Structures are given as structure tokens and as C-alpha cells.
Amino acid sequence: MNRGSWKIRIFIGLAIVAFAFIKKCNNTEQNEYTGRSQHITMSPDQEIAIGLQSMPQIQQQHGGLYPDERLQAYVDQVGRKLVQNSIARETPYKYDFHLLADDRTINAFALPGGQCFITYALFKQLNEEQLAGVLGHEIGHVIGRHSAERIAASEFWRTATMGATVGAGDIGNVVGSIGQNTLLKNGRGDELESDELGVLFMIQSGYNPNEMIEVMKILKAAAGPNRVPEFQSTHPDPENRIQKIKEAIAKYQGQS
């Protein structure tokens, strides 16, 4: 490659990276429900559409819905109580709560836009207040727009990596690695934010927030000495979460 071609390549690479950063700055907004500034590239309606589109595949991966309409209604009732008594009712999202048939995977998660799930493996270990803690946590993910934030971050790093690769070859791999680490760190922060929101929603709905601590103990016990449940694998250590939950309880108790 001659000197002129090399300069052109560097220029194009820097232009792509600059475009990625400008786009990120232009798409930064404040979450009106949490007050946190976020890089978001989609509307709430798009989040809802993505969640609904992804739902059938998610259900299939976990053996479908648990075949008991009474328990499905119970999970939905607890979830809706949390929504109706919290700021969640003011959001544009369409909340639905689903009990999955999977009796081996201890997990709970939320898709963007309001579709929330819990596996039977976790559900069967919880009382109502503990279930409220788990579902409140998942509602927190929706309100926090965590999935939309991760999607935007992924798009940003994909563009930045392309620019760095064009401009400097192997440096692109470094940028890509930074992107992955950032997403992991943000994910852990998301969990702590959702724990705090879950505590607030429990208190506002008349549930004992200390039961969220019991959920953490259940997750820790389920892990055993070697195995890590999926619910815990990408989350902060339960002991760290317990301390933050205690701080949230002290912060919000008496404010309901």
C-alpha cells in the first residue's frame, strides 16, 4: 500500500469513528422515569414491537408457557399490582407477565417494551412477596430502557470498530473488546438500578421489601458450590446486591 492510499484509509477510518461518536452524542437523552442520561436510538413503540416480535422464540426456548392458567393469572396479577401502584403505570409500555414451563433454569428476564418472564424453576421457590420482588426488578429493566440502551451501545461499537478496522487493521479488535467490556459493565449497573426500582415498587404496592433480600439468598443457595444459575451469571454477586438492596430499603421506606 503506498503512502497516499494509507492516508486515505486512515482518513476514512477516522471519519467513520467520528460519525459514531457524533451519532451517540445526538442520541443521548434523559430517562424521564429514572433521571439517568442514556444513549438511546429507538422509540418506546419500537421497543414494544421488538419485545412482541421476540416473545414467541423466547417462550419456545423455555418449553413454552407453564400449562396452568391459574398460576399464569396469579403471576400476571402480582405483576399488574406492581404496575398500577408505581410509576410504571405512567409509561407507554405494554406490560405482560408470563410463567415459563422451564423447570430446570432459574431465571427471570424482561424484553424491551414490557414483556416479563419467570421460569417455573425460580417461581416454585418463591412466596408472593418474593415473586413481587423478582417481577418488580424486571419492570425496572423495562422502565430503565436497559435493552434499548444495550442495543444502541452495540450499534455504536459496531460502527466504531468498522472505522478503526478500516483505519488501522488490528486496532479494530481492541475497540471491539472495549465495547464488549462496556456492555458487561453497563449490564451490572442495570441490575443494581433494577434492584433499587424493584424495592421501591414493592414498598409502593404494600409488599415487604426485605423479601427481596430473601430472593438473593435463594439465588445464592441455588448456585451451590460450583454451579451458577443463569439469573446470577451476568449479575453482580448476591452479597453485593443485598447491601445495595438494604440501602434502597432505607432510602424509600416511609416514602410510599
From TrEMBL:
GO terms for molecular function: metal ion binding; metalloendopeptidase activity. Keywords: Hydrolase, Metal-binding, Metalloprotease, Protease, Zinc. The keyword Signal does not apply. Residues 71-248 form the Peptidase M48 domain. It holds the Pfam family Peptidase_M48. Its cofactor is Zn(2+). GO terms for biological process: proteolysis involved in protein catabolic process. Binds 1 zinc ion per subunit. GO terms for cellular component: membrane. Belongs to the peptidase M48 family. PANTHER family: METALLOENDOPEPTIDASE OMA1, METALLOENDOPEPTIDASE OMA1, MITOCHONDRIAL. This is M48 family peptidase.
